[in-house]
Amino acid sequence: MSSLWASPSSWPCFCQGGSGKPQSCSTQMEELEQDLLMRPWAWLQLAENSLLAKASITKQGYALLISDLQQVWHEQLDALVVSQRAKELNKRLTAPPAAFLGHLDEVLRPLFNDSAPQDTAHPGKATFSCDHVAEALILRVRSELSGLPFNWRFHCIPASSSLVSQHLIRPLMGVSLALQCHVRELATLLRMKDLEIQAYQESGAVLSRSRLKTEPFEENSFLEQFMVEKLPEACAVGDGKPFAVNLQSLYVAVTKQQIQAAQERRGSGEAQTSSNNSPRGTDSQLPNQPEQPVSSTPTLAEPEHEPPATSGPRHRPQLAKPKRKKPKGLFS
Predict the structure, then answer these.
(1) What is the pTM assigned to this prediction?
(2) Which residue, 119, 280, 281, 298, could crosslink 47 as a Cys pair with Cβ 3.0–4.6 Å?
């Protein structure tokens, strides 16, 4: 079972693309990680465990993140290791890795899309349970594949700090900044509406229904009142369900923006590297430009020993011509 806990860097490279040609496992795992980042968090209720989870399952493997708001667990396997584990847990089943991965995708989809408890059995549906073993979290799945019992165990180990930052800290910081910008835009809009209402009133307009009258918007007073009356309720994280239900569309938008920004930085870095490499031939000529007048001074100095009447008039026009040509070349 030690191979099941192997890190992605130690996985054998047996991945193949749609064309049947071998592809880089690291590249496919990077695509899987990127797809996982853009997945929303789902709220799971399994028996007495309330969890936040997100998963990405492709033909190349799967990646899973689970959190109980105290700790974050993670597992990422490629198709080869999925096939090995499936054979160990299901001796009677023989299927290609794509079949196991496709079945796991079908099994997890209702769990991640349905907020109803999943700890009891339903006809034709899978059952789920989880327990802690040392520092690991094991999510057990029981279902049927091709009419035979199919068992699966997600062996999730504590996630690294970089994963927690990538999937929680940085996106949540982005969500907070986006919401703050949203509030500022709304405050600006309210002030403009107040000015519009004031203009109507100054022109003689009268409100027909007094119950619709509002006081001019004061942002500082509004924030003070919000801190006292609404903040405790707004900060009620609970078991994570409000975050999973209300903020996932914004979370996905923020993660997509972060991925796009990272790709643009990577592209600009590659372009800068290529631009730094391309002008090296011209840069190598730059030191030669100041050397030309240095090498020309001896040639100009030697005729100075000749009679000045003959050498002076000859060389001064030659020095004046390049001086006139330089501004022409710069501004032409």
Answers:
(1) 0.68
(2) 119
